[in-house]
């Protein structure tokens, strides 16, 4: 029986909850006789509403296809049951490796157990999958440092700190508000922790004031990282805490989509040249245009091409029954085990950096930045 048939059967056996099949089961990693064309990598991405995940999905697919592998790429529309089903299907169809960017990092234990039973290695892509022993590798960025970089950009934007880390001229006090990402995404906690560790001394000394008093991650989180949810919260904050003619000076935002929601709320409330310093992440093209136009302060660039490359390198290692190279084996405890990780560095992009970091590197063209739209 061919390996692929066994693969499919392996999934069926799983579905029937039978004892582990002996011999070579589904997706048991490649072996020397497997040609790339016989091997399928299942790639599960959270959503197409955010442009970054489209770029990630395309990048991973292109790189794998160029090496001759089959790619089963699925987007789950930010719906947890859809993502679970799509991964079930990938296992049934005989995926040899899974690359997963989870919607809810705690909701995939069942799928990961099925993958483990079928001997399919699982790579968590950018978002750590929690509460499961069956995560074999993690590719991401240094997520704590992302938070530090966001908070630093806020301090630099307010003039409290200079880019070189020295003390800035501005004394404040400045009114700031804080936003965090989705609580079910492990990254949201890392970003917020990095940011708050950086901002806390300035809050403690009174240079920064969180006028709403909302400083706990549970109070400032944004379910599914949604732009509209962030816009509504910013509108509520303006009505509840800034109805006395005081102004917001800065907003810590963990992600460009959230930043755009915040900016829309501020503009609707009449902010123009006095728009607060708003941070971001992902260098989404619509936000890069806003930075170029002087509306958004900054973003944190995570090069999805490099992340995709690392996912492919790790995937290939598993297919060759090797252990992918990790550069961090301490930070990412998923509640059950520390997942070996490969973490990439990040870069802060202010207006002056767009040319060098985003255009010269070929990530975007100058025309795309001017239009605020990527050309697919
Ligand atoms: C996080 C990711 C961020 C951002 C956010 C919203 O998991 O690390 O870069 O993309 O999701 O999509």
TrEMBL record:
The keyword Lipid metabolism does not apply. Coiled coil: none annotated. The keyword Nucleotide-binding does not apply. InterPro entries: Bact_Solute-Bind_Prot2, ChvE-like, Peripla_BP_I, SBP_2_dom. Keywords: Signal. Pfam families: Peripla_BP_4. GO terms for molecular function: carbohydrate binding. It is found in: Cell envelope. One of its GO terms (cellular component) is outer membrane-bounded periplasmic space. PROSITE patterns: PROKAR_LIPOPROTEIN. It comes from the Bacteria. PANTHER family: D-XYLOSE-BINDING PERIPLASMIC PROTEIN. This is Sugar ABC transporter substrate-binding protein.
